[in-house]
Write a structure and sequence with these properties.
Elements: E1 5-10, E2 15-17, H1 20-27, E3 34-38, H2 41-48, H3 63-67, H4 79-83, E4 89-98, E5 102-112, E6 115-128, H5 130-149, E7 155-159, H6 162-177, H7 190-203, E8 207-211, H8 219-234, E9 239-241, H9 252-256
Parallel strand pairs: 4-7, 7-8
Antiparallel strand pairs: 1-2, 1-3, 4-5, 5-6, 6-9
Helix pairs in contact: 5-7, 6-7
């Protein structure tokens, strides 16, 4: 049987679900429930964010969803929405640059079963930009996500850079069709984007890449931000696990007290 993705616009929990049993729990005996199945994750994401011709059963996506969708087609997810998502592995990314352009670094926070499990930092560039740092973080998160899906884990990546998300999930497909060119001029960070887009083709039906606002108190995003600063301060060129002793608890409060990017 072909895999389906279930969008719940109105139910006990809203979001995208990867199995009918979980979806059914959200809408069964729920007054005014709105839901629909889709054959691919891309279609489900577009429908949930209100950017698809495929609508909810009433014929239109709920107005509350439309209002939260930005004009450029990237929906921003709140901490509450993220917490309600039935996802095994949630990966947060961030990149920093001081100044811009200047010293750049990337950070990642990986949550498994709703608990922080890994923190990564590095990819230092002595003369980078905010965009390269954000792309580098997203690229590494995609690699982690690919590994997680090979273990049959559901995965979502949360990135606070709309530029990075759109480069990979929206713009690159047309750039590739046109020989990696665009009428308005140079495609910046092209070689990195090519690598990321190739990987995206492998994982796009298994991994969600979603937007979250930075510095609004979303714990995973804040931790990824602190890791980007650690990367700049340490000048770590590789990508290094911050909590190398997996038996030691991560002191979230202490990390959040560090300087933000």
């Amino acid at each position: 049987m072909a895999k389906k993705f279930y969008v719940v616009w109105q139910g006990r929990q809203t979001g995208i679900f990867t199995d009918w049993i979980t979806c059914k729990k959200q809408i069964e005996k729920f007054s005014g429930a709105k839901y629909k199945s889709f054959p691919t994750l891309d279609e489900a994401q577009a429908a949930f964010s209100g950017n698809s011709a495929s609508k909810s059963p009433s014929g239109t996506a709920p107005s509350s969803v439309k209002k939260r969708t930005s004009a450029n087609g990237v929906k921003t997810y709140t901490a509450k929405e993220i917490s309600l998502m039935d996802i095994n592995t949630k990966i947060y990314t961030d990149g920093g640059c001081e100044p811009n352009p200047g010293k750049a670094g990337s950070g990642i926070a990986v949550y498994r079963a709703e608990k922080i499990d890994e923190l990564w930092y590095g990819l230092y560039d002595s003369y980078g930009t905010n965009n390269t740092a954000e792309l580098n973080a997203l690229h590494y998160a995609m690699r982690i996500a690919d590994h997680e899906t090979n273990k049959d884990q559901s995965v979502a990546i949360f990135c606070d850079s709309k530029y990075s998300i759109q480069c990979i999930t929206q713009w690159a497909v047309n750039w590739q069709k046109k020989g990696w060119k665009k009428p308005s001029g140079e495609i910046k960070n092209l070689e990195l984007i090519k690598k990321m887009f190739a990987l995206y083709q492998v994982i796009k039906n298994k991994v969600q890449i979603l937007h979250v606002n930075g510095h609004v108190g979303v714990e995973g995003n804040e931790l990824a931000d602190r890791m980007s600063i650690v990367a700049i301060q340490s000048k770590e060129a590789g990508f290094k696990l911050y909590n190398e002793d997996k038996n030691a608890p991560i002191d979230i409060k202490a990390l959040l007290s560090l300087r933000a990017g």
